[in-house]
Amino acid sequence: MLAFFGLTPEYKKILLDEIFLLCYHSNGGYIHDQVYDMPIRYRRYYLQKLIENHEKQQEEMDKKFGGNNLNNSEPTKNKKLPPPPIPDFATKMKAPKK
Q: What is the DSSP string of 68-91?
């Protein structure tokens, strides 16, 4: 049996986390099958836009309430979420030739 077919357990968790985040935080804008079939670069783009939108909303809340954030003692603009890891096979694959 060839071991290089299919997704690794680590990447499956990353994929499922990304699907959950986009479906949950898009307020019904995406369904599981749409996100699952979405190209990786588009899925990562939309996730990054969600992060940027959340940071912008958090900054506006900090301004509105004078920066008294009870959940965190640090300002949110200093926190940067790392990009989700991309497995090697996803970046090294090439499109099939016709």
A: --SS-SS-GGG--PPPPP--HHHH
Q: Which range marks the domain in which residue 42 is found? A: 8-65
Total domains, the chain: 1
Is 93 part of any domain? no
Q: Which residue has the tokens 């959340």?
A: 54
Q: Per residue of the chain (98 residues), what is the pLDDT tens digit? A: 556 677 788 888 989 999 999 998 888 888 999 999 999 999 999 999 988 988 999 999 888 887 665 555 555 555 666 766 666 655 555 555 65
Q: What is the pTM of this model?
A: 0.58
Q: Is residue 15 part of a domain?
A: yes
